[in-house]
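Title: Prediction job returns without error message
Component: structure pipeline
Severity: low
Priority: P3
Assignee: unassigned

Description:
Job completed but the reporter wants confirmation the result is attached to the right record. Sequence as submitted:
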Amino acid sequence: MDSDGQPSPLASIRNIGIVAHIDAGKTTTTERILYYTGEIHRMGDVDKGSTTTDYLQEERERGITIVAAAISCKWKDAQGEPITINIIDTPGHVDFTAEVERSLRVLDGAVVVFSAVEGVEAQSETVWRQADKYHVPRLCFINKMDRIGAEFERVYDEIRDRLAGHPIPVMIPIGSGPEGNPDQFQGLIDLIEQKALYYQTEDLGSTITEKPIPDELRDTFDHWRETMLDQLSEFDETFAEHYMMALEGEPLTPEMIRAGLRRATLTGKAQPVLCGSSFKYVGVQRLLDAVVSYLPSPLEVPPVKGEHPKSGDELERPPDPKAPFSGLVFKITHDAHGDLSFVRVYSGILKSNTRPLNPGRNKKENCSRLYHIRADDREQIDQALAGDIVGVVGLKESVTGDTLCDQAHPILLERIEFPETVISMAIEPVSSADKNKLAEALVSLAREDPTFTYKFDEETGETLISGMGELHLEIIKNKMLRDLKLKVRIGKPRVSYRETIQHAVKGIHGQCIRQTGGSGLYAKVTIDLEPETQAKGAPVVRFVNKAKPNDVPTEFVRAVEAAIREDAKSGGITGYPLVDLKVTLTDGDTHEVDSNELAFGFAATDALNKALEKAGAVLLEPIMKVEVVTPEDFLGNVTGDLSSRRALIDKTYQRGKLWVVEARAPLEQMFGYSTDVRSLSQGRASYSMEPFDYAPAPEAMLRKLSGMDDED
């Protein structure tokens, strides 16, 4: 309900995302939308760094979108009623795919932008799969029809063939390519209204002239209109009946076609396809009409599903302001004013200065202030209704993916799953004064970005930061240096190796004898050492005592075991920790005055060092489980490159139209792979990587790390 008691106009809201591969024209399209809806009075330019939604300095310098930006505008439907369109302009670079993931999780519809030149690209495939995952209805906009090499039909076919989509054309171009070409791009043909549309670039496309379809384009029009009607009749039974009656002479109105397109789009069965050139101001108003006509309002989205946080029973919340409040935190940004949490309200009303429940953490949160977000501007509001996307100030415990709900009606919504980080770097403060600042910055950055992680590696003494790719970490680094004013050094991390032994050795003696007349040290031990693979999660060394109590008293046995375990952590000849060992204490000798725990600890260390020398060292390197998904054209490139990295390819199989390569590869060979695999596949392959096991490293690596090469 609104504050005046009137029903909430949910039917007049569209929550949409604009998604695409990098450089397809998302941000330019968004900028045109804001201009034509009157939200801005001067269009920005990506190349000049003056767009509304790319507001970060890093975005403007690079000319790319890094963070998803939210903004609202208004348009009118066919009846002249105002419609509020909440837009999220998302990144196109694969390193920032999480921004798209969390946006699609909370949006009701999407506009997928394709370049008429490049067609379906790597991130086009990724965002399409993400939209499939969250069952998001979508429109397709084939942009850049004014460029050399633009081909509407080829891109249309790629949407059908490579994305397994069901495109339905509603607009086709008149010509293609830049001015001066014999067949230059001049305008659009509306297949529903059966008119040719010509845009005036002099007034930035605000004047659209409608004309009859030119005779020379009549055959092209007939072909594409028949395609539209045939495709639509496949995906909507009601329209199919109208179409059959039309073939018998009954009228087929534009309203019937639009109603059929809306039903087919809302069910996800089909995707209307439009085209134009955002840069040249062509086609954006018709895209806005399509957003209003075909994409859902919050009322037309199925009720959000969740479970009771204690009983686990499945629950639903309808998109109704009268229902109990539920919402999802899908993004957190940090600035000079503190944390701003983006929340999608699914049901009920969220009011400022209230305390909703975070059921996943069983904590009450404080929503001190609410805002409608306009890129980097904020407009304070008193309450947010079902269907709203708002910024919330005051949340302390909640992170991306957390649920907020009415305390009396708890519900836990499905979390957002993010891919694992794939690349790490070492980072250290330049001075001790920066140490605390760095710690605070890492906590803040990890809260803001769920695909950024950090950890302190006790073995190397390094703090490792991890992200989705080299660009991702470069952006993080620049944020630390430029925005947070940190003084840090960043380099490559050291691979965390392990060490074990080649073969068993028995009867190895160790001793500690220091007798100087007063109380001294005296201990002798005998051990057996053998390789033995330990179960995951078990101690890396199994210690067995077979010495007689008269030879080694119980209190000294504990000292022997503690010393061996500590020495195993300190490492063997390479300095890396020892694993997969069995140490058996078989014998020993004591002195009635000079024996003590310290002496037996020293004796155990002496015995272990001697045993390691005789047993032969084996360097173990971390092995990663790697899955690469690639188009068939690049399968040979990918498998050949993996083999050159000492990878063992387990299997290769087809998944839909793509090929999947599963392999095991040493981590040492996989640094920089995110960049290399893009190069090998023209940016169309994706991959994931996770720790699998440890395996013997090449002898040359052992010699290098142990310093044996230096002795030759």
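Comment from assignee: result matches the submitted record. The mean pLDDT is 84.
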